Amino acid sequence: MSEHKVLLDVQGLKTYFPVRGGILHKAVGYVHAVEDVSFTIREQETFGLVGESGCGKSTTGRTILRLIEPTAGRILFDDTDLCALGQEEMRLQRRNMQLVFQDPYASLNPRMTVRKLLAEPLLTHFQLTPQELEEQVQWMAAAVGLAPEQLDRYPHQFSGGQRQRISIARALICKPRFVVADEPVSALDVSIQSQILNLLMSLQEELKLSYLFISHDLNVVRHISSRVGVMYLGRIVELGDTEAVYDRPLHPYTQALLSAIPKRDPSEVKERIRLEGDVPSPANPPKGCAFHDRCARCMGICKEQVPAVHEPEPGHTVACHLYD
């Protein structure tokens, strides 16, 4: 991907949510949902973000789109600082940045036909004649595998996989440059997941899209992503090319996650790394490395200092004191 320029540059992103209490409902603490996250995504690249539920993946994606306001940090989209934009400027920018939701059942208005669902974003962002509008709707429906006669049906008349195709069409009909795909196949049957993944990949090539692909499914992320970031308790603990991270995991947390992936060959012996304890609360994150109380290789410094980011090999970074 080195021939493509950086489209999205996230620098030191933080997202905190206040915990309120008392009679006056004042903030008595903060949930550290995203803590000092930095990464880049190049044009036409798919960057995968993986980790356990509650680690901050979805919050990161929504903060980048400013559906959630960041607490600190910079979000540069094509050299434009999104955090510095006013509401109207951000509204105009949204045609270039879209979100594919996890649940196709909840993300579509049940009272609107597919035709109206696809036309709505175009009516919001562009001034088109009725003929131009219909042509765009027909083109997008065909691109995701929907037949013309299906455009006048309602969401409840479709299967889960078909509804996700409608959601993807709705997100892409304004021809954005960047898409946050938030667990887009986790609610689908396994047999349908590969169809949707292949659709996303073919549309990426056709429309020159960049993806932030969020998932807890490591096999899915490996299939679609060129680079991967591994999140734990709001921080990216490891980042690199997909093959490097999967074949040579550096962080103990990444190693534990990958050890849980079932092998295709049942006869292959594989040692499972089992993590002790529970994920700490982001409202009360531990001192030092957030992973230290579950790490079998924990050292004294891990309990006191947040680890710096190291680069043991080009393009492959890890936040761990083992590499100090």
From TrEMBL:
The lineage of its organism: Bacteria, Bacillati, Bacillota, Clostridia, Eubacteriales. PROSITE patterns: ABC_TRANSPORTER_1 (PS00211), ABC_TRANSPORTER_2 (PS50893). Keywords: ATP-binding, Nucleotide-binding, Transport. InterPro entries: AAA+_ATPase, ABC_transp_ATP-bind, ABC_transporter-like_ATP-bd, ABC_transporter-like_CS, Oligopep_ABC_C, P-loop_NTPase. GO terms for molecular function: ATP binding; ATP hydrolysis activity. It comes from the Bacteria. Residues 19-258 form the ABC transporter domain. It comes from Candidatus Intestinimonas pullistercoris. Pfam families: ABC_tran, oligo_HPY. One of its GO terms (biological process) is peptide transport. This is Dipeptide ABC transporter ATP-binding protein. The keyword Transport applies. Belongs to the ABC transporter superfamily.
